Amino acid sequence: MSRICELTGKGRQVGNNVSHANNKTKRTFLPNLQNVTLISEALEKSIKLRVSTHGLRSVEHVGGLDNWLTKTSEEKLSPRAAKLKRELAKKAKAAA
Fold first, then answer.
1. pLDDT tens for the chain, residues 1 to 96
2. For residues 32 and 5, what is the distance between their CA atoms, to the nearest angstrom?
3. What is the Cα–Cα distance from 49 to 82, expressed in whole angstroms?
4. Which of 56, 78, 79 is nearest to 68 (CA)?
5. What is the distance between the alpha carbons of residues 86 and 43, in angstroms, rounded to a whole number?
6. How high is the pLDDT of residue 1?
7. Which candidate in 16, 29, 58, 78 could, as Cys together with 24 as Cys, close a disulfide (CB 3.0–4.6 Å)?
8. SS3 letters for the chain?
9. Would you list the DSSP string of 19-31?
């Protein structure tokens, strides 16, 4: 299981540990990923995703999972989230 947020695409970053003697060794910075169940009101179901805490705050700020998926481009989303976005668009098109 890769350490990438399914909504924002945030992944690991690489940097250095720097000692007092200024020795540098490689290290990784991992995102704070959480397993979360988000509710889609339009699809009327709950979805389990692996999301960073930053991504979760962003979803809540925008107004929910449905709004987040409609405003985000498919390149940033995971394949599962992109599929949800297509289902959401299909449902909205059928309702209109």
1. 689 999 999 999 999 999 999 999 999 999 999 999 999 999 999 999 999 999 999 999 999 999 999 999 988 888 999 999 999 999 988 887
2. 9
3. 12
4. 56
5. 11
6. 65
7. 16
8. CCCCCCCCCCCCEEEEEECCCCCEEEEEECCCEEEEEEEECCCCEEEEEEEEHHHHHHHHHHCCHHHHHHHCCCCCCCHHHHHHHHHHHHHHHHHC
9. -TT--EEEEEE--
Query: Burial level of 53, CB count in 10 A (0-12/13-18/19+)?
Result: middle
Residue type, 6: E
pLDDT at 12: 95
Kindly report the CA angle at 87 between 81 and 91, in degrees rounded to 5? 145
Tokens read off for 22: 């200024």
* C-alpha angle 69-96-45 in degrees, rounded to nearest 5: 45
Asked if residues 52 and 5 have their Cβ atoms less than 8 Å apart, the reply is yes
The reported pLDDT for the residue numbered 2 is 83
